[in-house]
């Protein structure tokens, strides 16, 4: 890529990135843009306007996945997808997800410009995608939109998901103008490419600017509820209390102790706690905790999961409460497409970067697509100090530009390739 073109691409990315980053931002508190919120709707509108100005048509499916479609090669041509997500965690960082959507949009606009100058001859169409509820902050499970598109999650089940105050996802989507499928959503693509900030320190510690993800860790996610009995915190005799929060506390402590001792290399968390009725003068009647285990070996995750479930049952027995397992899900690890990995590696080296082959602990929309049989690539750029899901999340401009350059090169090769072939230099 010529230096002038690179500067123009970075300027284009910075301009739209700043606009999107302002949606849901508060000084010192990062960005809160939860899926299907008013802020999410505003960001979607900015993205759509930007892409339409660049010549795309915008389509949305029934779960709200947003497609900026560039119909370069005709109705019968295969499709290439590229993108990520615009939703964030509460008080999250501005780079997570949004960078991948907007970088793909910038690449599409550069390619579209070259189409007008006859320097680009596409054999495929391209869609820049914003997947719904990747984060899973407001609605669980995460990867909702890509899960529905790939067939892993039934649409009806996804639309019926409820947030913490009982609002169904379908109703929340309708509130921001998403009420059903359109007729022109692009079909399953032949390939999908996702650019993302690493959210870890591996690239920084290795001194590399580009990571090529070969696969991801598996994740087991358990939602456990302990049900006790509400009572006055003052006069109720201690022997009569059925304290669900006490049970949850014992469950969390046991979860940490057992996994730290028997499975120390697994990544673990008890990251969300909801108590009801949540009054300082009432013994907690229901306490719900979201637990997570991540690792490479699904058999080991199964063993660890069974061990912690037994501990949860003991916590219920010891406190006179009742245990309910509301969810117990295993997200299988993904092995990314080898041919696309090689293509990304070639594009990185052509741009002057020696890529690092690595695994992702975090899940991304590329996991849902790859596991459904859609050949997918996941490209990482460094995150300063590995900070993620926090206002201090940051990636240097030169690393953003590196990722954008490699992504554009990969997409050009894929879009110019005849159907069923990956073009290589």
How would you characterize the largest beta sheet? 8 strands, mixed
What is the structural class? alpha/beta
Q: Report the end-to-end length measured between terminal Cα atoms.
A: 14 Å
| The CATH homologous superfamily of the largest domain | Zn peptidases
Name the helicity range.
25-40%
Keywords:
Alpha-Beta Plaits, disordered N terminus, eight-stranded mixed beta sheet, about 425 residues, single chain, alpha/beta, about 20% strand, 2 domains, about 35% helix
Report what the structure shows:
This protein has twelve helices and 14 strands. With 425 residues, the protein is α/β, with parallel strands linked by helices. It folds into two domains: 3-217 and 333-416, 3-Layer(aba) Sandwich (Aminopeptidase); 218-330, Alpha-Beta Plaits, CATH 3.30.70.360. The protein has an eight-stranded mixed β-sheet, sandwiched between helices. It has a four-stranded antiparallel β-sheet with strand order 10-11-9-12, with helices on one face. Strands 1-2 form a two-stranded antiparallel ribbon. Helix 1 crosses helix 3 (98-116) and helix 10 (338-350) crosses helix 12 (397-416). The longest helix is centred in the last third of the chain and has 22 residues, at 298-319. The two termini are 14 Å apart. The model is unreliable at 1-7 (pLDDT under 50).
């Amino acid at each position: 890529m010529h230096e002038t073109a690179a500067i123009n691409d970075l300027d284009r990315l910075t301009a739209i990135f700043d606009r999107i980053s302002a949606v849901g931002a508060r000084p010192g508190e990062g960005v809160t843009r939860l899926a299907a919120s008013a802020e999410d709707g505003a960001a979607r509108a900015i993205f759509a306007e930007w892409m339409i100005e660049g010549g795309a048509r915008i389509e949305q499916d029934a779960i709200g996945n947003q497609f900026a479609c560039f119909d370069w090669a005709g109705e019968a041509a295969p499709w290439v997808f590229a993108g990520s997500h615009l939703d964030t965690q509460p008080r999250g960082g501005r780079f997570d997800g949004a960078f991948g959507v907007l970088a793909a949009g910038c690449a599409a606009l550069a390619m579209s410009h070259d189409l007008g100058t006859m320097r680009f001859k596409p054999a495929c169409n391209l869609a820049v995608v914003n997947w719904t509820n990747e984060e899973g902050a407001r609605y669980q499970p995460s990867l909702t939109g890509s899960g529905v598109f790939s067939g892993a999650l039934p649409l009806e089940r996804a639309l019926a998901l409820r947030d913490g105050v009982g609002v169904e996802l379908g109703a929340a989507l309708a509130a921001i103008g998403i009420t059903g499928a359109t007729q022109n959503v692009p079909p399953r693509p032949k390939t999908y490419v996702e650019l993302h900030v690493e959210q870890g320190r591996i690239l920084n510690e290795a001194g590399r600017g580009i990571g090529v993800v070969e696969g991801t860790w598996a994740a087991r996610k358990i939602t456990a509820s302990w049900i006790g009995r509400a009572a006055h915190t003052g006069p109720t005799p201690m022997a009569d209390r059925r304290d669900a929060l006490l049970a949850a506390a014992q469950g969390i402590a046991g979860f940490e102790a057992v996994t730290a001792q028997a499975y120390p290399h697994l990544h673990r968390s008890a990251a969300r706690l909801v108590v009801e009725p949540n009054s300082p003068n009432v013994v907690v009647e229901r306490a719900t905790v979201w637990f997570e285990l991540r690792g490479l070996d699904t058999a080991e995750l199964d063993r660890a999961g069974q061990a912690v479930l037994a501990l949860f049952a003991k916590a219920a027995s010891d406190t006179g409460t009742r245990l309910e397992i509301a969810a117990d899900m295993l997200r299988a690890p993904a092995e990314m497409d080898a041919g696309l990995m090689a293509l990304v590696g070639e594009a990185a080296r052509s741009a002057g970067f020696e890529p690092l082959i690595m695994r992702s602990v975090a899940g991304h929309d590329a996991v849902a697509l790859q596991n459904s049989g859609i050949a997918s690539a996941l490209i990482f750029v460094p995150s300063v100090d590995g900070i993620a899901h926090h206002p201090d999340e940051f990636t240097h401009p030169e690393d953003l530009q590196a990722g954008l350059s490699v992504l554009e090169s990969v997409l050009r090769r894929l879009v110019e390739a005849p159907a069923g072939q990956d073009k290589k230099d």
